[in-house]
Design brief:
The protein is mainly α.
């Protein structure tokens, strides 16, 4: 997980750490961008622009939190540039089943939480990762067992161990989940 030390290395021009930043945060920023524009290609374009802008301004950052805030701001700004037309903006909000009162913080938090969950799942052993991914797609134990060519008991054991590990790794997210619900 990246920290302030890594951000300082990026500020000094370390491209390998910048690549790691890209890999670690791309998905959560993509979720946020996609939630704003509802178009895969446009969201990816916005992100590429955001990473270029950050690289060009990297010397201004020494800590991770301002970097995240910078990305969310750039993504929002770029998305709003695309949708200056008020009626189009309202149509997009309707398609997302949100109204204009949906707090933007909720969208950003959802993107952050999703990114952290996916990161945590990636730390699990490969077979456990597969079980968790299938489980998150609402596949039943028997379906997962058939798909992975393992016994249902093995699926149950891996699923239980995986979710236990995720609960431990992600316990810091519980207060945020409550905030998003209300």
């Amino acid at each position: 997980m990246l920290d302030n030390f890594h951000i300082k290395r990026i500020a000094s021009g370390d491209r390998l750490v910048f690549k790691r930043l890209h890999e670690e945060f791309f998905e959560r920023f993509y979720i946020y961008a996609f939630s704003l524009v509802h178009d895969k290609e446009v969201a990816e374009d916005i992100l590429q622009e955001a990473f270029v802008i950050y690289w060009n301004k990297r010397e201004n950052f020494q800590e991770i939190l301002p970097v995240k805030a910078f990305f969310y701001t750039i993504i929002r700004h770029k998305a709003l540039q695309l949708y200056r037309n008020e009626s189009l903006h309202k149509r997009i909000l309707n398609e997302l089943h949100w109204d204009e009162s949906t707090p933007e913080e909720h969208i950003m938090m959802a993107a952050e939480i999703t990114g952290q969950i996916r990161q945590a799942v990636a730390t699990l052993p490969p077979q456990t990762q597969k079980v968790i991914h299938f489980s998150m797609q609402d596949l039943k134990v028997d379906e997962i067992a058939k798909e992975m060519n393992i016994s249902p008991n093995t699926v149950k054991m891996l699923k239980k161990a995986g979710y236990r590990a995720l609960r431990i790794q992600l316990k810091h997210l519980r207060p945020l989940l409550l905030y998003l619900i209300f």
